[in-house]
Design brief:
The structure is a homodimer. With about 300 residues, the first copy, chain A, is an alpha+beta fold. Chain A has helices at about 65-75, 100-115, 125-135, 145-150, 185-190, 200-215, 220-225, 235, 245-250, 275-290; strands at about 5-15, 25-40, 45-50, 80-90, 150-160, 160-165, 170-180, 195, 255-260, 265-270, 295-300, 310. In chain A, strand 3, helix 1 (about 65-75) and strand 4 (about 80-90) form a beta-alpha-beta unit.
């Protein structure tokens, strides 16, 4: 029965989106991870193969985000099915592009389809968050939700989950530049302080509110002015060689704003239109090269549909 | 020349709007302060009379917010004119309803019209902020901007000023209940801590972002869920007798949410529709009475036009 082998795609996402630290994430069109899942009656979930990770990811299903998501899914519906998972990692690991979330999202989209979509898409999120807990030690939705649902997602609350879709303007383009240096989410969390000066916190919530207004009006200039993170970026930018020169180069090349994607080291820019975005990508890559780092550039629209079955 | 005697009105405003501490304010339709200003050639600005303040406000123009705003206005255009101001205080002093801002706004609207509107409305804001500096010791725009311009205003930045108008839904009603107890803005500031736990700050900016989304979608339930202030309200609520029982009564009576207006002691609720708002007003007043406090209730739409000349 050919519906039992499902090929699914889940996009990368920009966690935090600068000022929206821990509450926002946005899906991009590409790159993304792929899962080819074959349903079976073994009652066992296994990882058949992983491509593109240089052997770094766990091959045990219960230690792998894609595997965990499928295990949790099958547990929730008390199914006796099993599944064999092939994971195609297009996203670099530890990059700040929501790599672990994308693998888990592609996996749950695939198992859901294989079993005739017993869940609505949004209801798959808890399985991905359990997988994120295994990968990162915390069950955040700021990559999982946008990769699954698409668009710009605001997570107002985690307990209970309150997920808000924020419309984004048509011409908004995302530039992601991933330098060849690894920053572990855990390390990126450790540089943060446990308290914030009140005046910085006020600046941050003025900007998160303004970013939402800029997206919804829409007002591209306002989006740019709001992309300021006075809380995490000052700490995390020290983990990214050349950070300030890259940010300056992006803005000089026409970016509305520029910041760290998730916990880094990938940096993102928002731009109005593809022509500017292409220029900004080149400018950012050149600046990374100037500090001796190779990098990949991804220029993409906002992904408004989220993860999907592709075969 | 009859255009030289101008009667202007400026509405009360809800400073902070719960989660939007120090960055948001919203104008209500009523109550508001009135200024009757007579232009003359004396080169002197004077306060002719103040009604409704029980003699509490300064009668020297340079110590009175309405006077200061007019003095600064005339200085800016290097005018030799003078003005005589009658101030009709409909707003209670030290109430958290933007009383000092409303007086100054009415005054600048009047002097601007008397001189043939040399300034656009939005450009009058700096004069009001200078007046606020005299009254409160700090030049915040969170009451001044909504009283002047109307609607829900987000102040993304104070230096330079970045004022963003946030659309509000048609059926949104505001309930203001002013108990007869005075809280000085200065005291209300002193109970605040100078730093915030990171996790509370994250909660706050999730809510400010969600409040803007709720207003713009519009989504009344989301507006309600977002009206949470984990930063200032826990400190300031102790200055308001019966705070928690009043908030509970408002929500039980159907309010979307309830909080402190500005630095208090006035409390506000947002409601969908006038019938619910009327009930909420009664419920809040009854709870204030239960702790021995008399209060006034004001039920009003959002004021979308701001201050205006009325004669």
């Amino acid at each position: 029965m050919n519906t039992k082998k499902i090929h699914a795609y889940a996009p990368a996402s920009i966690g935090n989106v600068s000022c929206g630290f821990d509450v926002m994430g946005m899906a991009v069109d590409a790159p993304g991870d792929e899962v080819i899942l074959t349903l079976n009656d073994s009652g066992v979930v296994s990882i058949k193969d992983i491509e593109g990770d240089n052997g770094k990811l766990p091959r045990k299903a219960e230690e792998n985000t894609a595997g965990v998501a499928v295990i949790e899914f099958l547990k929730a519906i008390e199914s006796n099915h099993g599944a064999e998972i092939t994971l195609i990692k297009n996203l670099p690991l530890g990059s700040g592009m929501g790599s672990s979330a994308a693998s888990a999202v592609a996996a749950v989209i695939a198992i859901n389809r294989a079993l005739g979509n017993p869940f609505l898409k949004a209801d798959l999120l808890p399985f991905v968050m359990q997988a994120e807990f295994v990968a990162c030690g915390s069950a955040h939705a700021d990559n999982a939700a946008p990769s699954l649902l698409g668009g710009l997602i605001l997570i107002r609350d985690n307990h209970p989950l309150d997920i808000i879709e924020i419309p984004t303007p048509e011409e908004l383009m995302c530039v992601l530049v991933h330098p060849h240096v690894e920053v572990k989410t855990r390390d990126a969390r450790q540089v943060l302080k446990t308290s914030v000066p009140l005046k910085d916190a006020i600046t941050q919530w003025g900007n998160t509110a303004a970013l939402v207004a800029g997206m919804m009006k829409p007002d591209y200039e306002l989006i740019g002015r709001s992309l300021q993170d006075v809380v995490a970026e000052p700490m995390r930018s020290v983990l990214i060689p050349g950070f300030h020169s890259i940010k300056q180069a992006a803005v000089t090349a026409g970016a509305l704003g520029c910041g760290i994607s998730g916990s880094g080291p990938t940096m993102f820019s928002f731009c109005k239109g593809k022509a500017i975005a292409d220029n900004v990508g080149v400018a950012m890559q050149q600046q990374f090269a100037a500090v001796g780092l190779q990098s990949e550039v991804y220029v993409s629209k906002v992904n408004k549909a989220g993860a999907r079955v592709i075969g």
